[in-house]
Design a protein that fits this description.
Elements: H1 2-18, H2 27-32, E1 35-36, E2 46-48, E3 59-62, E4 65-68, E5 78-80, E6 87-95, E7 100-107, E8 123-127, E9 163-170, E10 173-178, E11 181-187, H3 191-198, E12 215-218, E13 225-234
Antiparallel strand pairs: 1-13, 2-5, 3-4, 4-13, 5-12, 6-9, 6-13, 7-8, 7-12, 9-10, 10-11
Amino acid sequence: MNKLLLSCAAICLALSSFGQVANQLSKAEKRNGTKLLFDGKTFTGWHTYGKPGKVGASWTIEDGIIGFDLTKKDGGDLITDAAYVDYDFSVDWRISPNGNSGIIFNVTEDAVKYHSTYNTGPEMQVLDDDGHPDGKINKHNSGDLYDLIKSSVKVTKPVGEWNTARIVNNKGLLQLYLNGSKVVETRTDDANWKAMIAGSKFKTMPGFGVNMQGRIALQDHGNPVWYRNIKIKEL
């Protein structure tokens, strides 16, 4: 009897897994106003930073997943067409061995004034913590608010597995979540925020972290990385 029950449980679990469809909204998400930022098939709503209407060939879509192919030599950060003010953003990411990428948010897109997304937007790090050299640097690990705040708890899954990142930016309160755990919380409208920036590698970038609203970017750091289930709810 116990073996039969275990068998039934395994079958139910398998059916449940097959029922989880990527890049789709649940009924609850539809009701609360969450929107898909990736339809699983096209780059509609996205472009390469500084190149409206264009997506570099290094960014690919296969089996409902956005991936970065470093062999194609035509990359650049992938950025949303739309800008956002207060929002709850989420995305699944998977990094390659020794890989590095990031989710850069509140980006001001002005390629003449700012040559890159990181000149204005803070980053939630995406990293192989064990394999990449940044894994040995404080505030540079996956889930960290890059070079500003270290994650309060280590919850990153092993390389090759999917992680779920969530960024809540709401009226000056910034919260980062990884795999369901809140790992960073800070105000972005006070003296402490300015002091953190002044003590970071971004101190020479006058536009960094000033306008805490804008576009959201997936970083081209020259390593294979994959993204799916990209969603946002405006608050």
